[in-house]
Amino acid sequence: MDAFDVVLNMADGAIGYFPTEEGNLALFDAIGRSLRVGGKHVMGVCSAAHAAKHFPKRHWEAGSRSLSLADFTWNAATSRMIYRGHVLRYGEPLAPIADAFPPSEEAPPDGGTRLYTLEELDAILGERGLRILAAYGGYDTAIPASPDRLMQVVCSRKEWQPA
Question: Going by DSSP bridges, is the β-strand pair 151-157/130-136 parallel, antiparallel, or unpaired?
Answer without folding.
Answer: antiparallel
